[in-house]
Amino acid sequence: MHLTWQQIEDVVTTRHHVCLSGPPGCGKTYLATVGASAVGAVYSLTLTEETPAAELRGHYVPKGGEFVWHDGPAIRAWREGARVVINEIDKASGDALTFLLALLDDPQVARLTLPTGETVKPRAGFQAVATCNGDPDQTLPPALRDRFAITIIVDEPHPNALTGLEAPLANAVRANFGHSDPARRISVRQAWAFTHLAQAMDDRETAAKAVWGSRGLDILNSLALAGASKKGR
Amino acid sequence: MARKVYPVPEAIRGEAWQIDVGAPRCNPKGRIMFVPLSDDPHLACIRAHETAHAVWTPENARLPASIPAIVLNAVEDARVNKLCLDAGVSFDAGVPPEVCAGALAMARGDWRRLCVYLVASLDDPDYARMIDGARAIKDGWDVDELDHADAVAREARQMLEARLPKKSGAPLTYPRTLHVAHWLAEQLGGESRGRKGGNPDAPVSSTGGAAPWGKLVLDAPRLDVRATARLAPTSEGTILREPWRVTTDSAVFRHKKVPKRGSVLCDASGSMALDAADIARLARVVPAGIVGAYGSSARQGTVRVLARRGMITTAPASYVFGGGNVIDGPALRWLASQPMPRVWISDGHVTGIDDHFYRECTDDAARVCREAGIIRVARIDDAIKRFRR
């Protein structure tokens, strides 16, 4: 049984570390960064296999004739008791992974000594919200997976993401969301790209072809039929 | 691999649908749709038509015993096509020429079937082509009979939209379909005007006991392209074949592969998404085997050998089949005579002549499968998995 978006919002608001997993474009990052639960400062970062720990922790930068220390987003979130949103956490490099294990440790024991010699610890209110596309049980290393006692699978798009789309298109996005066959999915971003393009160009056919290629004709036909008058039903 | 293109019936009410490759049909109640999924504008018309059934054909559509299913389906097709056009869905690309079976019906001397095809195709841009095709064949017909069929079809189509008494149902609604189908069945009822003069619904040929199968024709087009390599890369050997691999997997030599045997028969009825890429995939998993496919018109079908011993045919025309099953039994008997293991790729629907369901046909096909150890799978991918085990 999966949670509704409102329930997810309620859970995230409690300031526990949470890992949100779901298909691209469903609204995980939206909820964590600008949703109702995002109170106070929110630092956001996206990991790649090349992201070094220094980018999260901080590093020296040249200023005038000397080097000065510059906190990274993770340490800043620690100091301020803020939320840090870690996108694509399953892509963390070995270097970043080791740092994340320290960052996400229990608040009672979490300590980090920076290259400046200063030891910092998380201020009350610090929270990490991680996002990934795959199943965390499969994609996260056990130690990192263990840091996220709360892992939520998101299997439907955020309702705000579909508001404003024509009803048949919203139906199509919702019904095929996370379908096991990628050829059947219509992503939220594609739906919006089509909507904006069709309005800007005043040409739905070209917009559909631009967004969905040869499938555009089929999608356009289905939208026309679904939106047809009740006559004949 | 050819890209699959799916229709989106989910747009109608937001409910999930099962969509699979197969002879085009739609079950709005069970939310199951079978359509060809190839990336082809012709086939987009078929997908739009089946999606339209999902919109307009009632979930619990009544089928009165007095109306033959083929007549009711034709009239319902005509109604749905008209509603499609009203909704702005264009059929300009037309259905694939091979689906234009009107000419074939005419050639076979089946006047009633010709009428039924014409009713179902009146809003199709290929309607004129069908008429021309039938006119070109003539063989044993006079022009009046063709004109008569055309007139009956146009009358039926007109009745779908006309103002009629209330008991006939509102224009372009399902009750109106029933009304027009009843009228059309009466028009066709006693008129066996075919060259053969017989009842087209009566079973005629049989290759499996009492089962009324259609006639099987075996076709073996030229196999012109090798889909599998006879030699596989290896890191041991004597003659250097692929020196550039030394920096990657070190497989710089080649050795002869032990080819896998087996037989695959694919039900290609209903313009299933079958193309050279699919056949090449199958040929690769059974390099020493044989891959065939079949489809049919109303009473005759073709089993075509598309790959044998790693060679495949790439002629596009080789992948074109009729829309019906009709020869499942004889085709399975052909498969039974091929090397083991034998795999039949099919949705499991078995029909006899005129693409009708007959209990005898289903029983016969099941018997052949049982006795010959034929394994049925629903998709090409499933067949490939079976052979890879």
Task: Describe this entry's structure for a reader.
- The complex is a heterodimer of chains A (233) and B (389).
- Chain A has 233 residues and is α/β, with parallel strands linked by helices.
- Chain A has helices spanning 5-13, 28-34, 53-57, 73-80, 94-103, 136-139, 142-147, 159-162, 167-175, 188-201, 204-212, 216-226; strands at 18-21, 42-46, 58-63, 66-71, 83-87, 112-113, 119-120, 127-132, 150-153.
- In chain A, helix 10 runs antiparallel to helix 11 and helix 11 packs across helix 12.
- In chain B, 37% of the residues lie in helices and 14% in strands.
- Chain B is α/β, with parallel strands linked by helices and 389 residues long.
- In chain B, helix 3 (69-86) packs parallel to helix 5.
- The longest helix of chain B has 19 residues, at 143-161.
- At the A-B interface, helix 9 and helix 12 of A face helix 1, helix 2 and helix 3 of B.
Keywords:
heterodimer; A: 233 residues; alpha/beta; five-stranded parallel β-sheet; two-stranded antiparallel sheet; 12 helices; 9 strands; 41% helix; B: 389 residues; eight-stranded mixed β-sheet; three-stranded mixed β-sheet
